[in-house]
Task: structure prediction
Amino acid sequence: MRIAVFAYHQIGYECLNVLIEAGEEVVAVVTHEDDPREEVWFPSVARLARMHELSVYAPSNPNTPDFIGLVRRLAPDLILSIYYRRLLYKELLAIPPLGGINLHGSLLPKYRGRAPINWVLVNGETETGVTLHYMVEEADAGDIVAQRAVPIDEQDTALDLYKKIIAAGAELLRETFPLIKEGRAPRIPQDSSRATKFGGRRPEDGKILWDSPARSVYNLIRAVTHPYPGAFTYFGGRKLFVWHARALPGAANHKGLPGSVEAVEKGNGIWVKTGDGSLLLTRTQFEGEEEMPADELAARYGISVGAKLDL
Result:
């Protein structure tokens, strides 16, 4: 079977490798040029493809007549999309007899759209997963082929969860692909009444709102910590990143406003009052400077009890 693979990021890399190891006929690998504004910490799909002498394309828009004509000449039996960032239009999806199948990083119909791994952590979910589904012009709305659940531990960061998603996605593809090749893959309609949709996240979305509960602030921090842009607040007019923290539920001891420093504990960190409970900041960094333990940063820059963050 001839396969056109549209893929990016580490999960795209791992799933392409599944196809290569299985000896599948990949007639094209379509990917993205790396964005210089983005921290590229993941392996290159293009490099893997070229190592195996596969044809690589990186169009800025895959839905142009010229590129659609190229795909038509390649005559794939299937389009397989893994973390490819552009929606594929019906003209492209109509080319292969088996249509297009996408691997999405959530348990559809929940968390359709962008950045599902980050969003499930922001929202404090305890489970997510991966879904193989047929592609239609509406993002992540096509019939489901197969799913696999992934538990979310309380300490998981986005990177921790992403590694779980990679393993689950590669395994799901490996197990399900024989059915796809034979044209026997299930088609389970999604219940759109249960769908939730989320957009992409921007660096500025990492701003900490101290009047939120401690648990919510903690979830934001772990959702956008390394290698993502990070959660941040301000002190003395300077942006202060919080890379790691721990939440303490229940009423905060300090009577000040949310964002007030309740205690600085040597070897432990900075306790900050939130809208409900306290948050212990353990790894921090002023923009443009080195990351360090929060108690060391407090000592170096004079952050003491009663100081107000977010000013």
